[in-house]
Amino acid sequence: MKPAELVSRSPWLAHFNTAACNGCDIEVLAMLCPQYDPERFGVKLTPSIRRADILVATGAVNKKSAVRLKRLYEQMAEPKFVVAVGACAISGGVFSKSYNLYAGVDRSVPVVAYVPGCPPKPEAILDGLVKVIAKLRKAK
Ligand code: SF4
């Protein structure tokens, strides 16, 4: 298992839309662009969940996506961290009264950071990731 401090030097991200309207996803993708330059913090998107250190989850979790979210989380290597991006991922947001909803991401998997907003700006998402990185560096 990699130490958390090592992960903090170059955390690779996986992105999963649990049932978002795509608003948050577009902001996550914008955050990954050179304009915001997340690679200066070592942050990079990986297509493989098995190589990811941080799972960025967007959207409210429903009965179907909860199963997939848990499966993805189980496939990540330790240490692993989840960041909930957007009001829906935090609490269900505008969909919180839906009949098939479990509400936020933390009902299914442990979450280390929450980025509020509907949708949050790319700067806010990057700020949330940098705070997670700082926390991991302190944990060494
Ligand atoms: S928080 Fe807003 S933008 Fe993000 S998925 Fe929910 S409704 Fe869409």
Characterize this entry briefly.
By secondary structure, the protein is an alpha/beta fold. The chain has 5 helices and 7 strands.
Structure description:
It contains 5 helices and 7 strands. The chain has a 5-stranded parallel beta sheet with strand order 2-1-3-5-7. The chain has one domain: 3-Layer(aba) Sandwich (Rossmann fold), CATH 3.40.50.12280. α2 packs across α5. It has 140 residues and is α/β, with parallel strands linked by helices. The mean pLDDT is 93. It binds iron/sulfur cluster.
CATH class: Alpha Beta
Specify the structural class. Answer: alpha/beta
- The count of domains is 1
How many helices in DSSP terms? 5
Count the E strands.
7
Beta percentage is 15-25%
Given the C-alpha coordinates, what overall shape results? globular
Rg calc: 14 Å
**Biggest β-sheet strands, sense, barrel:** 5 strands, parallel
Order of helices and strands: HEHEEEHEHEEH
**Which bin fits the share of residues in helices?**
25-40%
CATH architecture: 3-Layer(aba) Sandwich
Low-confidence stretches: none
CATH topology: Rossmann fold
**What ligand species are in this complex?**
iron/sulfur cluster
N-C termini distance = 14 Å
Q: Report the average pLDDT across residues.
A: 93
What spatial order of strands do you see in the largest sheet?
2-1-3-5-7
